[in-house]
Fold these 2 entries.
Entry 1:
Amino acid sequence: MKDYEKPYIILSAAMTIDGRIASKTGDPELSDEEDWKEVHKLRTEVDAIMVGKGTILNDNPKLHIKYYDHNGYYRIVLDSDLSIPLHSKVFNYQPELYPTLICTTNHIPEEKVRKFESKENVEVIKCGESEKVDILKLMPILKQKGIKKILLEGGGTLNWSFIKNNLIDELRLTIAPWIVGGKDAISLVEGVGFSKMDEAPRFMLVNIKHRNNYVILEYTAIN
Ligand SMILES: NC(=O)c1ccc[n+]([C@@H]2O[C@H](COP(=O)([O-])OP(=O)(O)OC[C@H]3O[C@@H](n4cnc5c(N)ncnc54)[C@H](OP(=O)(O)O)[C@@H]3O)[C@@H](O)[C@H]2O)c1
């Protein structure tokens, strides 16, 4: 996909040394205070934060900004059957500052759409004829809304959709000092994966930092 057709995508995540972004029970508490500050700083530099439905159901995040003054941005959630609870924090925490876009499929009845859009500053975008949201179709729609830069904050299943379609421009990974193991613990990237290394997108390491036993890696895409 051409750069002018899509927002610039930065994938941001905290993971264990063994590449898990949560434990097998879904415990996502990997970041320390310093890391949160850096993530929130990064949030001040984008037009939207995007997560998948699994992250909303597991973590119920506010996707807001602490520590810095800010005028808000879009929160974007991908939910193919529009089933995340209406009491989720993305709908109810400071909607005047952070409008929420719920991206779903074309099969969703209008009545359900109206229920979600009755919440303050919530818009439903129907995008995709199959069972999942069509992210290739979604990219130009978001760009046309003026969203130039997105911070993709997971989880592993949504990250795979972006990696599979070669849509990531930049990675910002924090490696937290644990090895948690578990075949059911969510990895940075889930999905079926590529068969060969030469099918997978490659990234160039542009920065390494470390502090308090944490390592921060920054990469850009090699196209
Ligand atoms: N450490 C970190 O930085 C970090 C950050 C974020 C999340 N997490 C962790 O990651 C876990 C959640 O990850 P997850 O993999 O279960 O869920 P996820 O990636 O957050 O959400 C995946 C879901 O989004 C929906 N979706 C709709 N269209 C999609 C598309 N085109 N591609 C992919 N997904 C699409 C699908 O559900 P439907 O088909 O039902 O709509 C899919 O199952 C949680 O444990 C959370 O704590 C960690």
Entry 2:
Amino acid sequence: MTEAANTVFHAGTIALLGRPNVGKSTLLNALVGTKLSITSRKPQTTRYRIQGIANRTDAQFVFVDTPGFQTRFRSALNSAMNRGIQIAQEEVDVLVVVIEAGRFDTADRDIVSRMAKVGKPLILAVNKSDRIRPPEMLPFLREVSQAAGFDAIVPISAQKRKGLDALLKAIRPYLPAQSALHAEDALTDRSERFLAAEFLREKLFRTLGDEVPYGVSTVIEKFEESPRLYRIFAGILVDKEPHKAIVIGKQGEQLKRIATAARLDMERMFGRKVHLEVWVKVRHGWQDDSEFVKSLGYD
Ligand SMILES: Nc1nc2c(ncn2[C@@H]2O[C@H](COP(=O)(O)OP(=O)(O)OP(=O)(O)O)[C@@H](O)[C@H]2O)c(=O)[nH]1
Ligand SMILES: [Mg+2]
């Protein structure tokens, strides 16, 4: 390739797809260099599509993080999440399927074969490479390479930030040769209000046990901006009465910890002080209320 060909600018969109918990959101954040998409050890943390923009001298990569494929049960919430994945795959130039090193189960295979049928460039990112013994990597890559005609297979560690440049290099040729799609200082398509609700939801996912987070949603009721301070009024919705007391904790201590952690994330992201007030409310069966789920901003 000549020098001139090397410097043609490419820009486009890339969906990060895969089973829950493989590290899609951690990867988005690592690629962008900012924490935008919430992450946790629990599967099905991400509920909404969110874009993260990574700028390099020769390309602009607009990544779309998606919810993990929902297979567990049907609800208005799960349908909305699956619709989000569908929209993402239709909108983008490149599909990146994320799997975990050393694990390629039926859910992964199912996603890979579905994505191979879409007919777009398909790249496999083998994440959590830090978790596998190095001699096991090559046989694993050989095994997964049989599953579809991938355009590239790249081992990475989103957490340790390994292999990320190799991943970008593998994606770049499949992005259209065109100028940047977004201003260089743009980070995401989502509003500060959206990010505030999500940062709060992340703390609930990280703090609470295995059941409560799945019945929790967060909404921003008021978002008052001034140059030095944001005043944010947020609601935490739980779908069962007893969950309210769990979220609040003894003498409100749990809720205080959650709110403080969320506020610190917001201050870091927004670059100013944040005054955060949080209420907990019970809303029975909100996950099956399609009108309400729609109002949360999935599409
Ligand atoms: N060891 C290791 N852990 C990782 C890596 N990347 C992500 N994780 C961890 O894997 C867990 C899931 O990460 P997420 O980024 O939330 O996964 P996700 O695919 O977005 O999950 P859903 O939103 O639920 O679909 C978290 O505990 C991460 O810290 C990695 O490269 N190595
Ligand atoms: Mg996620």
